[in-house]
Fold this protein.
Amino acid sequence: MQSADIPEAEPAAEEMNDAVAAAVSRVESQLEDLRSKGKLPRLPKGELDRQFQGVVESVEAQLLTARVDAHDVVASSDYLTGGIPDSEVGGSGARRIVVRFLSSWTKFILPRLGRFATATAVAIDQLADRQDHIQNLVVNNQLDRIRSLEYRCAQLELELDRLQPASEPEA
Amino acid sequence: MLDQLLVGAAPGDAITLSALKLRDALRESGDSEVYAAFPEPILSDEVHPLKALASRPNRERPLIFHASIGCEQVHEAIRSLEPTLVLVYHNMSPADSFERYAPEVAADLTRGRWELEDIRERVILSVADSQFNASELVELGYTDVHVIPPLPDTGRVLNCTPEIRPLRRLQAQRADPVILFIGQQLPHKRVDRVIAAVAVLQQEFFSDARLVIAGVERFPAYTASLKEFAATVGLMGDPFVGRLTDEELTGFLMGADVFLTLSDHEGFCVPVVEAMAVGTPVVASSTAAIPETVGDAGVLVTDPDDPMLVAALMNEVIVNQSLAHELRGRGVARAEELGVGASLTKYLDLLDSELGIPA
């Protein structure tokens, strides 16, 4: 290798009397000081990369982007929250009391049942979606791997074809 | 004179711009053309398709080959036409960071290094953008590698009228300070580190700080992951502004408080030079060729995986006015040292002294 033609930067960056190097060193020392006193957590080595790779895998599996919109499901169960309409209340006094009691009970219990049913349906739906996406991820990864291997094989076969005539012994 | 061959050619691409600058200088002494396997149609007046290489005007002279990725078509053309080569090595990104998002690109990058070994006997003169790149060529069996910086066209940010409306829109939302990242959204550029560091800057130092990520999306899955990651770490504001015109880029560069890049792998890093040229303080990872490009004109981060450290250093640059002033001055001087004029002269002198081809 020839000696560098690229303009060499002054080595001043490593000297403590250099303004930039001094500022960087001061900040690093302050940070180290805080960490050694336990006032600032130390990020484990490779943690940032692990976090990002976790997000990448989630995006590939579409776990983060496929959020279930449960609004429609909940809206469809609204009729459960009304209980028995007052217009249907009538008849004898005893009947009216029973009906009003049933109506109150209905108003109390049915919305809860409705919410429970909706939440269960949404959870099952989400589980099924996640299962699908994880399967897709595995399948896609396998396909990518196969495609890259096929590509490499094709390249190597091409090289082999080129090299074979040259290596064959002369008749 | 001499012709040049590239794999791809695109407007704004650093290698394409370098080749066109060199062509313009070579044309002062005769014919000189640029060829590429994958030229963008908008460059059809400037760059010829690969199939025209066989009828290039300087067939009896060496061909300048800019290597940055493997390409079967280009390699086949070199094999069949058998030119002697002047190799200009702009670095090949590590294949492993592409395997997840684009296995075919990873394969081309792996193939590229094999191709460099395969054409070695044809190369009569080799040039690398940086010492970092030169050492990679030496590992591939090359000797006498000359190191000349590429031809960063700082004129595109220095000689245009800045378009400041996008920046003003950002500032109207009380964005202050503004942190700028310029580069394609590629895995080895570690945009995730940039996002994490600015999120910490917002949470610990400046709640109104805003990040601007200027550059084209290459792999949708990677960009989608970056967006989810930004939401996960609580980054405020949408940082992605896509590809910018030279005028918009200059506007952001002039308005930014810090230019931040935390790449894992760079053969030179032209955006750093552009930032320094307009006097934007640079905070960059101390990895690959970045330290030799930045020199002492920027803040180099020894552990770019530590977002707290990066945020604290950015905070220091923002609040310490004398430090920012020092960085601006050194940056402008460093960019002038690395400017297109100096490198162009070195290229022409090298071609003259080694090949006897006066330009």
Remarks:
- Chain A has a mean pLDDT of 72.
- Residues 99 and 137 of chain A are 55 Å apart (CA to CA).
